Amino acid sequence: MRVEVDPNICEGHGQCNAVAPEVYDLDDGGYCLIRHPEVPPDLESQAEAGALACPVQAITVTR
Ligand code: SF4
Fold it and tell me: Which residues line ligand 1 (CB under 6 A)?
């Protein structure tokens, strides 16, 4: 699984990090920084939950 964030869409709500801190970090402005673009199997469910939590659908999950 891969996750990507579109920086043009991300509005810095921080929900991804609140739900899945091991996958999504935040920069100094509160915008999403992805820790693991290639998601390890044990973090896949977290990665999906974080993507679903984003209120502006800035995160794309691909398998
Ligand atoms: S939840 Fe969405 S808008 Fe908020 S920081 Fe994460 S990717 Fe950006």
Answer: 5, 10-16, 24, 31-32, 54, 56, 58-59
